[in-house]
């Protein structure tokens, strides 16, 4: 005698086609597929804009004049939104920015045992078949701030984009939350 497992098992609808060929309806692949793009500036809690300087391998939040903002060099980000089969994690996004006719994408890499945020020359892919170091999950910062978000690194649970003061710079970093319910203002990004 065999006991049935009480777990729910997801089932897919099937149809029989010509010559009784079996095929499945409404299956989605696990790949991330680009759904839409948004053009935005990213601001920290001090209303500074994120500015990318690929020549210096640096991204930092800075005070920017209206005239500098008009030029837009390294400040206007394209947020690439992807469709996902696991929406509970947050909306998967990737970031890119244009500088002097070239496109740079944000990614995270390990260096000396620490995760570093980098901007590399190249395009963001339309489809990502598996895990990727360019994907972040966009989440509400708090329920009362509709334009403020935090971005969790897809390959590091509990690690978020944030800024860290380094001399006179507020450098873009990847920061680990101490507790899941912690509210860390350095991770608050307004779009």
TrEMBL record:
GO terms for cellular component: cytoplasm; extracellular space. The keyword Cytoplasm applies. GO terms for biological process: cellular response to lipopolysaccharide; cytokine-mediated signaling pathway; immune response; inflammatory response; positive regulation of cytokine production. Keywords: Cytokine, Cytoplasm, Secreted. Its main location: cytoplasm. GO terms for molecular function: cytokine activity. Coiled coil: none annotated. CDD domains: beta-trefoil_IL18 (cd23298). InterPro entries: IL-18 (IPR015529), IL-1_fam (IPR000975), IL1/FGF (IPR008996). It is found in: Cytoplasm; Secreted. Belongs to the IL-1 family. PANTHER family: INTERLEUKIN-1 FAMILY MEMBER, INTERLEUKIN-18. Forms a ternary complex with ligand-binding receptor subunit IL18R1 and signaling receptor subunit IL18RAP at the plasma membrane. Mature IL18 first binds to IL18R1 forming a low affinity binary complex, which then interacts with IL18RAP to form a high affinity ternary complex that signals inside the cell. Interacts with cargo receptor TMED10; the interaction mediates the translocation from the cytoplasm into the ERGIC (endoplasmic reticulum-Golgi intermediate compartment) and thereby secretion. This is Interleukin-18.
């Amino acid at each position: 005698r065999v006991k049935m497992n009480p777990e729910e098992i997801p089932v897919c609808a099937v149809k029989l086609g010509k010559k009784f060929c079996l095929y499945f309806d409404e299956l989605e692949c696990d790949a991330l597929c680009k759904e839409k793009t948004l053009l935005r500036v990213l601001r920290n809690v001090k209303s500074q804009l994120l500015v990318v300087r690929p020549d210096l391998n640096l991204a930092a939040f800075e005070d920017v004049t209206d005239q500098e903002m008009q030029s837009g060099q390294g400040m206007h980000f394209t947020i690439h939104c992807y469709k996902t089969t696991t929406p509970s994690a947050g909306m998967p996004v990737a970031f890119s920015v244009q500088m002097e006719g070239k496109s740079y994408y944000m990614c995270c890499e390990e260096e000396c045992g620490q995760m570093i945020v980098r901007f590399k020359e190249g395009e963001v892919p339309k489809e990502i078949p598996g895990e990727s170091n360019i994907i972040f999950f966009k989440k509400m910062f708090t329920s009362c701030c509709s334009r403020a978000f935090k971005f969790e690194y897809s390959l590091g649970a509990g690690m978020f984009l944030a800024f860290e003061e380094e001399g006179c710079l507020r450098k873009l970093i990847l920061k680990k939350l101490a507790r899941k319910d912690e509210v860390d203002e350095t991770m608050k990004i307004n779009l």
